[in-house]
Every structure is written in C-alpha cells, then in structure tokens.
Amino acid sequence: MTEPAEQPTEQPTEPVEGGIVAEVERMTEAQRAEHAAEVADVVAPDRDIAVGVGDTLLEMREVTMRFGGLVALDTVNFDIKRGEILGLIGPNGAGKTTCFNAMTGVYRPTSGQVLLEGRAMGRRKRYQITRMGIARTFQNIRLFGEMTALENVVVGADARHKTSVPGALLRLPRHHREEREVVERATALLEFVGIADRAADKARNLPYGYQRRLEIARALATEPKLLCLDEPAAGFNPREKQDLMGLIRKIRDDGYTVLLIEHDMRLVMGVTDRIVVLEFGKKIAEGAPAEIRENPAVIAAYLGVPDDGAA
Amino acid sequence: MHPLTAFLADGSSWITFDVSGFKAEFWSLTFDGLAYGAIYALIAMGYTLVYGVLRLINFAHSEVFISGAYAVVFTLSFLGFGGSPPGLSTPALIGDLLLAMILAMVVSGIVAVVLERVAYRPLRKKGAPPLAFLITAIGASFTIQYLIEWWRGPNAENSVIMFIPKPLFSVFGSNVDDQQLIIFLAAIVLAVGVDQFLKRTRFGRGIRAVAQDPDTATLMGVNKERVIMLTFLIGGILAGAAALFYVMKVPSGVIYNGGFILGIKAFAAAVLGGIGNIRGALLGGLLIGLIGEYGATLLGNAQWTDVIAFVVLVLILMIRPTGILGESLGKARV
Amino acid sequence: MTTASSATRPANESAVRRFRNRWNELSRPQQWVALIPLVVLIYLIPEINAPFLASTSVDFATSMFHAAEFAMIALGLNVVVGQAGLLDLGYVGFFAIGSYVAALLTSPESMLAKIPYLATLPIAMIVTMIFGLLLGTPTLRLRGDYLAIVTLGFGEIVRLLASIIPVFNGNVGLDNVGHPPKLLGQTFSNTDAKPWYWLMVTLIIVILLFVGNLERSRVGRAWVAIREDEDAAQIMGVSTFKFKLWAFAIGAGIGGLSGALVGGQVSFVNNQDFSVPFSVLYLAAVILGGAGNKVGVMIGGFLVAYIPDRFNSLGDKKYLVFGVALVLLMIFRSQGLLGARQRLLARGRQAYRQLLGRPEPITSESSVTPDGGAQ
Question: Which of A109, A206, B118, B266 is the most exposed place for a label (fewest CB within 10 A)?
Fold first, then answer.
C-alpha cells in the first residue's frame, strides 16, 4: 500500500514567500487563534447544529457476524452518542476490527442491524454508507499514493458533490463551483490536521505521521456524522501520541462524533468519554474510562486468566 | 429494405438452430469435446499454477506449449512418422509416443524456466508493478512466436499422424475411440498427479505456502525463488504433455502462432473453473471443450466455437465472480 | 511497491526537471501560446519531407497517418488503462465496431441506408459507447484479471462475428467506404493521406481538451482513486462502478472514432485487421509511452506505429524486435518512457500557490498499477 518513502524529498518543502503556510508562521498568537477558528469553521460548516449532542447517533442492535464456523461478533449491542468520543477496545482477536467493518459497511452482519440516526444500513453499498455519514481511516494506511496530499483530501470532499462526466467535460457552472468548494475545504482540512506544509507532496512520499493525519483529513472531508479511527496511533512515539490526542479532541470540539479503536491504553483512557470492551466477540463491559479501569472482567481479559497466558 | 433485415436474411445460413442434428450427435460431440477439453485443461493448469503463485497471467505460456508441439513434430518426423500412420506394432508406437512426450516436456519445461529467469525474475528483483509483468509476458510471447517464425517460416509444419483412431466401444449409441479415451484419461491422471503433488510433497506444500502468503512463506524458510521456478517447470511439463495430445488430435496444427488462441481459451478455462485451482482448471478445460463442440454444431458453423466459449465464460463469471470452484487462494479483502 | 523509478534515470535529469519547472511556472495561456509552434510543426510534418524520417518504403503521409491513428487509440485506451487502471485487452473490438459502422453506413456494398461520411463519426462513437456499456455492465464488477480475459474474449468475438455474419462480408469486406467532402481546399481520397492526417490531428487536439477537462475534475480524481486503491476509493464515497463504466465507455468511444476514421482513409474494411495482437499493440503503445501520461501515450502510439513502418525491410522480424524491446523496456524502465503525470484539480494552480506560495507540483517518474496482477 502506501509506505512512507525513506527520502521524502521530491520537492523543496520549506514554506515559500506568499503562501498561507508561510504567513501563519509569521503570525502572532492571537492572529493564529483567529486563523485557526476560521479554518475550523470551514472544516465543520454546520457545527452549530451540535444541538443534538447526547442523542443516539449510531446503534449496534444485536449484531452477530459469523465466518464459517467462527463467531467473530456475538449479539453485540451498544450506542454511540452524538458528540462523544467512544473507545472500542479489547485484546487481540476480540472482534474490534470486525465490529468496525460491520459498522462501516465492509461486512454485512449475519444477523442484527446497524442503525445510523435510526436508519438501517441494510444492503447499502459502501460508498452510500459514506454518504450517509460514516467515514473511516485504515489501520494499515491506505492513501492514494500517487496523489498529492491535497488531492487525497479532495477525493474525500468529492463525496458530497455531484458533477459527473457531462458536467466536467463541458465545464458547466456546477463543476466550477464544486471545484472551488473542494479545494477550499481540503486546504482548510490540511491546516486543521497540521500538514498543510506538505500539501503538494505525493501521499506516498509523506512521513508516516503525516500519512496518518492525512487519512484523518481525508475521512473528515466526506463530512461524516461519525468518524471512525482504526488504531490511529499505531507506530507513534509518546510525543506524537500526545499530539494525536489533541487532534482527536479538537475534532470532537469541532462538532464531530468519534469512534476510536486503539491498543494504547493510556491514549484511550486519556481521550475517550466512554469505552466499550469486547472479548471473544462479546461485549464484556461499557462505561466511563475510570469505571473500565476498575472493571474486574476487563482486567481479567487484558491480564489473562491463569489458563490463558499473556495476550 | 428495413435495416435489420440485412443482418438476418441473406440466403446463406450463417446461423442455424440445428437442434435435431445436435440431438443426434450429442454423445459423439460430448466425447470429442471432452478430448479437446482435456488438452485445454492441461494447458490451463500451467496458467493456473503460475497465476496462483505470482498472480501473473503468463501470456507466454501459449508459446511454452507450442514449443513442445514443435518438439513432438520433430521427434516423430525423425522417427519416420509423416502424413500417413507408420504401421508400427502397438508397443513400438507407445514407445515412440512416450519418447516424443518426454522430449516435449523437456523442451516446454526449459522454455518455461528460461522465460521465468530471463523475463520475470529481473522484474521481481526490482519490485516492478504488476502491469510491467503482463507487458513483459506479452513481449516474451511475441518474441518466441517470431523467433519460431524466423526459423520455421510462416506456414504450418507438415502433418504428423500418429495413428488412425479406432472405435473401442460404444456408449449411448455413439462410439468412443481410443484416441479420445487416451487423451481424456491422461489428462485426468496428470491432474490428479499434480493435485496430489501439491498436497503431499514438501515442494507442493512450498508452492501452496507461497501462493497463500509469499512473505510469511519466506519467513518460514520456504525458498521462494525455487518454488517459483518449480511452478514454471511443472506448468511447462504439463504443456509438453498437452502438446503431444494436441498433435495427436490435430496433426497439422503446429504453426508459430498456433498457441495463441488455444492459450487464450485455456486461460479462459482456468478462470472459468476458478483460477489458482488445479481441479478448477480441469473442470474449466473440459467445459470449454464441450461448450465449443456443442455450440459449433448447434449453430451450424465451427467459427461459433470460440464465440460461445467466451460468452459462457462471461455468463458464468457474472453468476460466480471467482469461477465455478472458486479461487483456492482468494484472500479476504478489506 | 513503487520503487522502480530510481534505478535508471537519465543523466540529464536535472535539465529535464529544470525545463519542467520552468514550464510549470507559466500560466495556462502562456503555455498555450508556447505550444503553437509545436502544433504548427505537427501539422506540417507530412509536407516537410525530412530526410531521416521519411526514408520508408511506405508513403510518408500514410505512415504519419498511421502514427496519428495509434496516438489517438493510445489516448483513448489511456483513459481506461492509465487513468482508471482497468486492463482492457480487447480494445481492437471497439476499433472494429467503429470501422464497420462507417463502412456499413457509406459503402455501396452494404445493404444499409447511406448517410454522409462525416455523420458516421458521431454515430460510430455512440454505437461503440453503447457496446462499451454492454460489455462493461456485466464485467466491470469483476476483478482486474478477469476483466482482462473477458475483454480479450470480446475482441475475438467481434472479429469472429464479422467473419460469420454475412452483412459484414467477412474476408471480402466492404469497399468504397465514404470520405468527407472537399474541406478547406483539401480533397479526401484513399490515395492521399495528408488531409486525413490533418483531420486526425485536429480531432486528437479536441480529444486532448476534453480528456484534460475530465482529468482535472471529480471524474478524473475518482478514476485515479480507483486505480490506486479501489476499496479505499469506495469507502471514501466514490461510486466506483459508475466511474469505471464511464471510463470504459469513453475509451470505447474514442476507439470507435479512430476505427471510423481509418475505415474512411483506407476506404475498405474487412475482418482481417482486428485480431488480438492489435489489442496487444495498442496496450503496448500505452505502456511504452507511460500509462497515465497523455503526452507519453501519444509518443508511445507514434513509436509503435512508426517504427515498423520505418523498418519495413525487416519484414516479420520487426515483431521479434518489438517483442524483445518490450521485455527490455519493462526490465529497465517499467514506468514507460514518461512516467504517469496528472493534474487532478481544476483550481490546483491557485490552491497550491495560495497555500504554499509555489506552483502546482508535477508528479512524474512513477508507474501506474492497475489491479491486473499482483496486488
């Protein structure tokens, strides 16, 4: 897929005279804050709709996934509330990724339903699910390696648009309007996640941390109601993890709902509002981080009961 | 004249629906179709093996096959075969044919391995993109074809007749001849043999391991390069066997570009059965053979053979996108 | 996965890059002006009897027409293979359909109604696009390798049907295919290829404009996303099937157009010129020039058509040379002569300048990886 190149030096990357990136460098604290607010506005255009905070956004209802004889998910129930950061954790092989895939339409549940704002996902295609409002990142980064960072994000933003071959061929007014919109939105998103300085680099030439952030920007570009992050901190050092926590909070504060699958306990505990714990395809606990930390079933699952060995 | 009538009425019968003729000949068509199908199946196995391990459509496999066919023709010509059957005793005949087959296997095997070494391995070393492999395969196919043409000229080789088929017994009122039986049985035996080889031997397990996950297989101590070479070799050997039976069935069909369409149909057979799957290749080959024979008679023109084979391929892929028996190596995709 | 580029870079790379950067600094209108002399030169080629170029046994104008024909075909196939990453091995089928549409509607030997030749060009495009949809609808859900074999089969079916169905006259073919009326003082006939060459070049320029519009739009981005990672594209909201079908239909239409033009120029269409190796040659042109690079594939098309004409004395050995050349090219420069290059944003120029204060980047030196093989 998209491996970071060892020498990511296709183009000179220092900010040059005149660009926004260079301008921000020269700004005062106050100016920067103002600029960040402007950017945040573009990133989440309808964030004053945050009225519904606390409503159920997504509902997993009795979801079961079977592969042959293997039961990967066993009647799992939980909700994701609008405006929260929900952590989904569990030991290896607990069914986190399966759960994630069932939610994002990669798999269809064997039985049970996934509802987004009360609407069943049913037999919708994956791109339709994205347009319903679920976006995701990938555990093993899957960017469009030959596109620039900006173009990657624009592909995400295209999900909300309609121009097809006739419009593009003849460059009809809607095409022009949409092109302006996607570029504006994608630029803002790159600034928002903090990688605007490499906007013109091919995705495959970006450093690893940038690639992770670019995936988040691309997913946000689809204007999701729910953003699903699949182990976004994999391969990060503590410092990068800290930054990532900041970014996730910033995304939530901007009006998005976030589902986080992550191995790193400190990160999960530090950033989530609520946590759901899976083990062997079953939900074994659900609650605030502090409760989960004390939950004996969770401790047993992670530390392993004596006959089970280390995870 | 209404524009459409031009397509339909022209006096000559370019398409008929000869159901009664088809019914009458059904069993003899079946037996002949199975014999042709067996040849497709043997070639298809070569495609399927290489595809399974490298995920590469080895376009030049048709030239691996036709090289073997040339070996058969040369060997038999040298042994005195020609436009009429030689009138040898049965043991002597069997001996000659076996010799021809072994030489064909050697030649095809060598061509396959050399092809792998010269054309594909450098690309693997460089980590070239998949399309580069395909283009190389096409280039290699052209190269071998026109090397042969340079050497042997643009015309087909003189025909080499091995023996005149004799009816052995009759099933449902139609005769089965010794030629059909030999070809069909040989293909079954070779298919079972390869299948067992893959299942039971260490090399076979190595091939399957690389097919499933090259990186892990390498970590587990499988020598990937050797496995790849072996895969090409087995494919070549099977193509050599196919070459003998092809010349047996079509004595005058050896020409420099004669492998091309045959190869495409064999690849279609592999896809039809489920690529990467030896049994699938056998099943697909036999089906392509049968469909061609039935179609040609039903529609009244031998040219329909290929058209129908491809139409059936498309139809089956629409219903079962990974072929009838499925891909044995199909990985779950996110 | 994409490590192929570094091994074999030409020594004068920096000069090439400097030129590219200079070029990139120019505004679009400036680029247009700068291109005018080149376009004029291209139009004049058949008039200038360049001693090196022209020493072929084939009439030079005809040879140039062939080259332009292949350039147009490569441009069409590039939409399918280079942009969307769909492996089409049956492109000659669309070319054949285009030829037959032109022939059936103009040749006195056809039983269909006759119409003016120029009207057959759009009809040929529409008919081939419909065939593209018919072939694509069932098959574009299949994975790349299967698509390759099914399209290959399609090419064969078209050829075989042309042999079997009487209205196409099989080997005998359809003679006296029509031609355009006298245009700007040029008489079109099958003895003088020059006017045909000019017509072809003009249409190529039109196609370039349209294909460029598509590339720098939501459509072009969807294609490249599909090419890079189809699953990820779908999860990012790209209706992959729809855009693949469009790519297929557009490619088919361009193939049909070139078929109709060639049918008119040769003034004769039979079943002999549509065999599988032609599809392979077309694909080779695209790969040779560099899939995903419009200029590259046109150069590839030019070379694939011109070199055999130039070295006609080699006879069939030219195919041998061609085969060896393909293998060597892939080993030493698998991304083609020019690497994939694309601009995917209509307003990229402004966006990059606004953000970074420097011009749009040129992406190049990379190879396209349709899913026609390993992952």
Answer: B118
Q: Kindly report the nearest CA distance between residue A14 and chain C, in angstroms.
A: 9
Q: Provide, as residue numbers in chain B, all residues whose Cβ is less than 8 Å from the Cβ of A142.
A: 334
Question: Exposed/middle/buried for A29, CB within 10 Å: 0-12, 13-18, 19+?
Answer: exposed
Q: In whole angstroms, what is the distance from residue A109 CA to residue A122 CA?
A: 9
- Residue numbers in B near C291 (CB within 8 A): 131
Do A186 and C221 contact (CB within 8 A), yes or no? no
C residues 302-321 closer than 8 Å to B (CB): 316-317, 319-320
Nearest chain B Cα distance for residue A261, angstroms: 16
Structural domain of A308: 283-311
Mean pLDDT of B263-268: 86
Model pLDDT, residue C14: 67
Longest dimension (CA), chain B: 73
Chains in contact with A, where contact means 3 or more Cβ–Cβ distances below 8 Å, are B, C
Interface B-C, measured as beta-carbon pairs within 8 A, has a size of 196
More confident residue, C34 or A2: C34
Statement to judge: residues A115 and A131 lie in one domain = no
Q: Long-range contacts made by residues C28-36, C-beta under 8 angstroms, separation at least 24?
A: C28/C349
Domain with C207, as residue range(s), is: 59-356
CATH code, A175: 3.40.50.300
Measured CA to CA, the distance from residue C291 to residue B261 in angstroms comes to: 26
Gap from A136 CA to chain B (nearest CA, Å): 12
Residue of B nearest to A107 (CA): B334
Q: Provide mean pLDDT across the span A287-293.
A: 88
Q: Is the pLDDT of residue B318 over 60?
A: yes
State whether C236 and A179 contact (CB < 8 Å).
no
Q: Under an 8 A CB cutoff, do A147 and C221 touch? A: yes
- Answer yes or no: is C111 within a domain: yes
**Averaged pLDDT of chain B:** 82
Burial class (CB in 10 A: 0-12, 13-18, 19+), A25: exposed
Q: Are C180 and C118 in contact (CB under 8 A)?
A: yes
What is the per-residue pLDDT for B157?
Answer: 81
Does C6 contact chain B (CB < 8 Å)? no
Range with lowest mean pLDDT among B20-34, B268-282, C150-164, C340-354: C340-354
B chain contacts of residue C326, beta-carbon cutoff 8 Å: 135-136, 138-139, 142
**Could you tell me which chain A residue has the CA closest to the CA of B334?**
A106
Tell me the per-residue pLDDT of A68-115, one tens digit each, with 9 for 90 and over. 778 888 888 898 988 899 999 888 778 888 888 888 877 888 888 888
Residues A65 and A166 in one domain: no
Q: Grade residue C360 by pLDDT with cuts at 50, 70 and 90.
A: low
Q: Does A273 fall in a domain? A: no
CA atoms within 13 A on the CB side of B83: 2
Taking residues C25-48, what's their average pLDDT?
Answer: 80
* Mean of all residue pLDDT scores within chain A: 82
CATH topology of domain B20-319: ABC transporter involved in vitamin B12 uptake, BtuC (1.10.3470)
Cα-based angle B149, B151, B155 (whole degrees, multiple of 5): 45
* B104-148 tens-digit pLDDT: 999 999 999 999 998 888 888 887 777 778 888 888 888 898 888
> How many domains does the structure of chain A reveal?
3
Which subunits have 3 or more CB–CB pairs within 8 Å of chain B?
Answer: A, C
